[in-house]
Amino acid sequence: MRRTGIILIICGALFAAGAVAWSTTAVSKLVKFPTSTNTTLHYSGHFVTYVNAKTGATLAQPSSVALTVDRTVKAVPSLSTGSVAVVDEDIVLHYGGTTATETNVYAFNRTTMGEVTSSHAYTFAPSNPAPLLNSYYITLPMNLKPGVTSLNIWKPETGTTYALSPVPAGSQPSTLDGLKVDWFAGGLNYVPVASYERTALAARGLPMSVSPTVVEAEMSSAGISVPALETALAPTLTPTQLGEVSAVLKTPVPLHYYVFGSGFVGAEPRTGAIIDLKNIIDGIAVAPSTTGLNTLIAVMSAHSTVKGVPAALAVLRRLAAAPPQKVYELQYSQTPASVLGMVNTAQSQLKQIRTVTYYVPIGLGVIALLLLLFGGTITVRRRRLATVSAHPRRHVTSGPEAATHRRHVA
Fold it and tell me: Which helix (H) or strand (E) holds 374?
């Protein structure tokens, strides 16, 4: 019995050590982004166009067609490791009879969810750069805290990040289909596109420059004749200045493209899983290069007394200061069915996390406690029996002492 008690105590101590080791070591190794991820999300909304795709002229009224987006996020186990998840993202857009596709590959830390260096990651094509280090995209970090001020979210079209910040409590629903969510808002205000996005826009037929006649037409609409202005300036400009003005007026004007947008993100705080994307605006805008305009402004400013120059300067400065013109924008939200699918996925992940984080170590602790109690009880009982055996009570049944005892009893 003594040996059994000692064995139980030792086993209890081992289970207790196992509970501690599980909580301090195993949890951190098991609670991470799953490489079994394979999810298709759906969004719907409108594709809004602001300019004529063929002429580049601004439409009197923007046109709008239905938009659907299918987004598949799939981990690649063969490329992933214990600490890094490699994930493919395929996006397919359908609008107005057009289908556009986009592919990205992300590599991020499976615990922090921040992007890491990887030869597998790229944006749009393998020859393009990978997302910036420590930015987020596929999922937000686990254990989101109310005090988090902002997160750096990767924007593929610009090759930069933008801030995602918590929204005021009560401005968005605190639960989605019974699941607690934290809401964030983000946006971009005319950020230049990356070179590879510019190439993609050119492939879609968007112009990369405009004819000098566009500037001339803009000035003509303001009542300014460019030929007449050149004639008036000719006597006052040096040959060099006249050459600069002539070159600007005869050279195509490069166009610069920008990304603008805004929207809301709902995430489950424990897992960091993005449950809902809501009221998303994702657009492209364009503006002419101001290099030539600034050259004209600089030259003409020195000759503001020449007839027609003040009016021309006013037009040129207005053109140079004009904000980018919207080309198109995608307006969409995640479909209710897709949101519900993510709710179910997050709830399943939470159940697994609770099992790993709480149930397993508690179970080990309970087993340890029972073994220690049983082992201790058996050991203490064995010691008591041993003590009684070492000091037995004396029983007298015959002889003088027995007779004396009987007399006392009588």
Answer: helix 360-390
Contacts of 375 (CB under 8 A, 6+ apart): 4, 5, 6, 7, 8, 9, 10, 11, 12
Reported as a single tens digit per residue, the pLDDT across 22-46 is: 566 655 566 689 999 999 999 999 9
How many helices (H) and strands (E) would you count in the chain? 11, 14
Give per-residue pLDDT as tens, 64-73. Answer: 999 999 999 9
CB 167 within 8 A of CB 184: yes
Q: Do 212 and 250 form a contact (C-beta atoms < 8 A)?
A: yes
- What is the four-CA torsion angle of 360, 362, 368, 372, rounded to 10 degrees? -170
Among the listed ranges 121-130, 306-315, 370-379, which one has the minimum average pLDDT value?
370-379
The Cα–Cα gap between 98 and 69 comes to: 12
Cβ atoms of 241 and 165 within 8 Å: the answer is: no
Label residue 197 exposed, middle or buried (CB < 10 Å: 0-12, 13-18, 19+): buried
Long-range contacts at 48-55 (CB < 8 A, ≥ 24 apart): 48/328, 48/329, 48/330, 48/331, 49/327, 49/328, 50/325, 50/326, 50/327, 50/328, 50/329, 51/286, 51/325, 51/326, 51/327, 51/328, 53/205, 53/206
Q: Which residue has the tokens 């639960």?
A: 175
pLDDT reported for residue 360: 65
Average pLDDT, the chain: 85
Three-state DSSP state, 217: helix
* Mean pLDDT in residue range 239-260: 88
Beta bridge partners of 188: 261
The Cα 162–Cα 139 span in angstroms is 15
pLDDT tens digits along 335-365:
999 999 999 999 998 888 777 676 667 776 6
Cα 333 versus chain centre, distance: 16
**CA–CA dist 95, 69 (Å, integer):** 9
Of the CA atoms within 13 Å of residue 16, those in its CB half-sphere come to 12
**CA 85 to CA 76: how far, in whole Å?**
7
Pairing of strands 151-155, 160-166: antiparallel
pLDDT of residue 21: 64
Q: Where are the alpha helices (DSSP H) in 204-305?
A: 212-221, 226-233, 239-250, 291-301
